[in-house]
Specification:
Layout: H1 2-20, E1 26-34, H2 41-52, E2 61-67, E3 70-73, E4 79-81, E5 97-101, E6 105-112
Parallel strand pairs: 1-2
Antiparallel strand pairs: 1-6, 3-4, 3-5
The chain binds zinc ion (ZN).
């Protein structure tokens, strides 16, 4: 399951950060998750809760911000939201599009006690 591997990666980061700050409990984890990762927030919460049981991150609430997919045309430099994975510039029709957001998967902020 896709979300299980991602949840494990997040837990590793969170537990390392908690240990570094001598935190007994992690209260809240703010995540930025790109649309392109195709992470289902509810599935991610479920997997995280299962993996985090018996760790300092067990009571943590996941605050998940989904970052929409956006591209930049390499021909006319316009930036646009990519809907339904159609990587074509809406202005000039070019297919030479660079993805500028929507692939992120990062722990942005932690609240610990
Ligand atoms: Zn263009």
């Amino acid at each position: 399951m896709h979300e299980m591997a991602i949840a494990q990666g997040i837990l590793d980061i969170v537990l390392a950060a908690a240990a570094e700050h001598d935190a007994a409990v992690v209260r809240r984890i703010k995540l930025r998750v790109g649309e392109m990762t195709e992470v289902e927030p509810d599935a991610l919460r479920f997997c995280f809760a299962a993996l985090a049981a018996d760790t300092p991150a067990a009571p943590a609430e996941l605050d998940i911000e989904v970052v929409p997919l956006a591209g930049r045309c390499q021909d006319c430099q316009c930036e646009f939201a990519v809907a339904r994975y159609r990587f074509f510039c809406p202005v000039c029709g070019s297919a030479d599009v660079e993805i500028i957001s929507g692939r992120e998967l990062q722990v942005e902020h932690l609240e610990v006690d």
